[in-house]
Amino acid sequence: LVELDRRHLVHPVSSFHGHEARGVRVLRSARGATVTDSEGRELIDGFAGLWCVNAGYGHESVIEAAATQMRDLPYATGYFDLGAEAPIRLAAELAERAPGDLDHVYFCLGGSDAVDSSIRFIRYYWHARGQPERDQFISVAQGYHGSTSAGAGLTALPVFHEGFGVPYDWQHKIPSHYAYRNPVGPDDAAIISASVAALRARAEEIGPERVAAFYVEPIQGSGGVLVPPKGWIKAMRDACTELGILFVADEVITAFGRTGPLFACEYEGIVPDLMTVAKGLTSGYVPMGAVLMSEHVYQTIAEGAGPRAVGHGFTYSAHPVSAAVALEVLKLYEGGLLDNGRRQGARLQQGLAALADHPLVGDVRGRGMLAAVELVTDKEKKTPLPAALDAATRLFDRAWEQGLILRSFAQGVLGYAPPLCCTDAEIDRIVERTRKVLDLTLE
Ligand code: PMP
């Protein structure tokens, strides 16, 4: 397998030659929060796959739901006014639970095409309102919004732009709220007013009548689990309302119990104009994402289209097997997983916070089952880990040797997103093994 992989499989977001040197690690099976590799080694998945297996692995009821749907009706297109029961029911269930009037659901295959779809719907919305010149988008530095051509434009991590040559001249960034390394300092109120001022200034520069929408992650994930101060997201929502631009919450990571509630927007009680979700929607068992649209966005698009079709759709939009899985996963969340996730999230945050006394730990941050530990060599000066120690793969490898799968970000940040089904003992092991990784890195 290692040899075949080397020769033929192109891995996502990996060095085209890096994994050739190390060789692929093949996973064979998984149960709960534990995965087993091809050599029979068991590891705790501290990252729920790629922040997605929120419910944990191996739920028989989910497998059964998929099998039943495959037997009965494995595929139905949504084109030609056709449909299937599972996606219709799922849309209704999501609309019922989503904040405010996010009552209209467009199903995608994952997060990137959900973001892409939202961009297309927003362009259509402004056309329908007679303002097609509103074609500029603003997002936040260190944000991640997917890897398709448009979504990668909103993504503010350089590796997703460099060398790809896609015209990204319609997208703009404001600085992140990243409290640990913020030029305005760590004070919450100062960070919030700096972000609001930056959004207003950026809109003014672009021309306020040119701005279509502002995208945020309620907690920035791939940028290093950056948690905004309380009040930040509400202030940004309000600023968008004042500026007359759409506010989009990209909840691809944060939804479905990752931070505690079903949707992270609930934390401050805000209602976005559009929301994107994926990952935890199906808990990684099958691919699916969605765009949730508020009433005014949906109605404006509908009126703009009139009798014409809105020309946006995929063969696998609203896939019945994915929808059947999502319906079952939703039952699991509400049948105890959200509660367990909240309890274990508090345990995880507490356990990681206790690592703050380690000489290598500069910052510990997170909410619920989403966390990060940022490593530095000098706590006073916040000196980032030098390249040799930072080397993402070395931290990842070290954790692996301890029986723990973590994400290690390139900038020396360890990321955590364990399945919500973790037990006390598993959370404690994640923390203990992290301490071992830190001690080994110090040596
Ligand atoms: N938006 C956010 C906030 C994400 O974290 C991700 C994936 N990590 C995406 C969009 C893209 O989702 P996908 O990888 O499913 O295409």
UniProtKB/TrEMBL annotation:
Source species, domain of life: Bacteria
Keywords from the named record: Aminotransferase, Pyridoxal phosphate, Transferase
GO molecular function: transaminase activity
Cofactor dependency: pyridoxal 5'-phosphate
Residues making up the signal peptide according to the UniProt record: none
Keyword match Transferase: yes
Cited InterPro entries: Aminotrans_3, Aminotrans_3_PPA_site, PyrdxlP-dep_Trfase, PyrdxlP-dep_Trfase_major, PyrdxlP-dep_Trfase_small
Family as reported in the entry's similarity comment: Belongs to the class-III pyridoxal-phosphate-dependent aminotransferase family.
Family annotation (PANTHER family): AMINOTRANSFERASE (PTHR43094), AMINOTRANSFERASE CLASS-III (PTHR43094:SF1)
Protein name as annotated: Aspartate aminotransferase family protein
The organism of origin for this protein: Roseovarius ramblicola
